[in-house]
Amino acid sequence: MNILRTADLKKHYGGPPSGAALVRALDGVDLAVEQGEFVSVVGSSGSGKSTLLHMLGGLDRPTAGSVEISGQPIFAMRDDELTIFRRRHIGFVFQSYNLVPVLTVEENIRLPLELDGSEPDGPFISQVIDLLGLSDRRRSLPNQLSGGQQQRVAIARALAAKPAIVLADEPTGNLDSRGGLDVMGLLKISGERFGQTIVLITHNPQIAQMADRIIRIEDGRIAS
Q1: What is the per-residue pLDDT across 100-130, written as a single tens digit (0 to 9) for each?
Q2: What predicted TM-score, i.e. pTM, was given to this entire model?
Q3: 34-62+71-222 CATH, one of 3.30.200.20, 2.60.40.1180, 3.40.50.1240, 3.40.50.300
């Protein structure tokens, strides 16, 4: 079953009437991702891969085309509806960990759920914490963690709401090669354990090879 689908997705910048040169960041992307699939998106700098991730996550609206998550066309929603949908159905992992420095590991993981007014699933969150090797760090603050540990907290936070899809944008960019592979191994294992669908943006071929499928994007189009 397709959990994610795009149709003729486009994002253009500039052009008439702005007078700036037209940039086709995305230029007609058709993409389908199966439930539980782990997909990596690769491409050269400026190819459109990060723009694609922003469209998939509803962080920016397209010039044309559609994105469906769990059968729901997300850009048919009003901005406030989309914000709620994004919070409940999409998990994000970025290169920067975006942890709240005054909150503990467990408090950071629970924070998005509490902000949404949802009751955190304590046993599930404990499973995620255990799987990601953070059991002995529950009460630690972010500045007491290594970069790899902080990124594991960010992954746990993304998984905690049991989203339909997890979008990861260069999540190993701030880690050394071994730390990056360790974090990606844990992301892959957690995705398999909890049935999560993962779309990963990366420039690292070793990281990309860990996915079930690799999609290459160039000049705003899927090349292979």
Answers
A1: 999 999 999 999 899 888 888 999 999 999 9
A2: 0.91
A3: 3.40.50.300
